[in-house]
Amino acid sequence: METTDLKTSDIKLVEKPEGYEGAGFFATSLDKVVGLARKNSIWPLPFATSCCGIEFMATMGAHYDLARFGSERLSFSPRQADLLMVMGTIAKKMGPVLRQVYEQMAEPRWVLSVGACACSGGIFDTYSVLQGIDRIIPVDVYVPGCPPRPEQIINGIMRIQHLVETESVRRRDSPEYKAMLNKYGIE
Amino acid sequence: MDKAIQDQIVGIISEKFESDVLSVEVPYGFLTINFAKEKIIDLIRYLYDHPVAKFRYLTTLCGIHYPDNKQIAVMYQLHNLVDNWRIRIKIFLPEDNPVTPTLTTIFAGANWMERETYDFFGVRFTGHPDLRRILNVEDMVIFPLRKDIPLEDQTREDKKDFMFGR
User: Fold this and answer.
1) What pTM was computed for the model?
2) A131, B153: Cβ pair inside 8 Å?
3) Looking at CA atoms only, how far is residue A17 from chain B in angstroms?
4) Residue range(s) defining the domain that contains residue A138
């Protein structure tokens, strides 16, 4: 294949990771390759319950275009999703549902909490609303705002990408990770 | 609803339940009858069957907490769809043991309304076919719309004074 097309195109490709390169070979660590692949093909599962979900729709739309980050493929099945995006108020009655969705996701999985309600209950400081989803599932990145603008959601995605990229492939097998899940009563 | 009709309805009720009417008021032009709790079902049945009153539609039913009187009221709002008459009937139950017979024997639609009233105020409707919480989580232990229950979630940390340097 000719490479000249790529050189003149304005499409940016991901930079290759650090490593040793020679004629016909390229050596780097497995962590970096896996991280690179995972980072640029995150399949998000949108769990949108209120106005933050509307901002998410804008984020997915052509103007803000989350597809630029390799996340254009939304997965509406938790079993195939890598990233759970919780956007909106989670009522206490919704809690077990959200938890079940999280439990159905395969490892490795990440959680992005979008908006004040998902992060802390927001203005709904009341008997019927869950005061932050981190009471029932572990959260990797919090995006504050009521609702946050698409730029903020994109920033949250980029933070998630950073976590995904730098995560060790062995992290999910570590006793610390298991202990963290046990704290939430998962597994 | 003008005064003559209101007087007529009060007259119909007094005919049979004179000693059970606690008081009659007309807040914002809405005829309201405070009634003895023991005979509430009899009264609603009577108004349902009465050839003139014909209150055959239950608009709504709900609880009201009066913490000063230590009472929980149950409010029934009835509608005569033929003449477009509306009335409100209130009964008062003791706060520590709010029990009253179910209205589902007359209006099937009272089922979920009574469940809601139980859910939020703890009023127990004896004879109700399925009296359990309808809107809140099943394991909730409080009746959240009672005035002695604080509105805020008491386990919340991020609004404590030290978060704001107080």
Assistant:
1) 0.83
2) yes
3) 41
4) 40-183
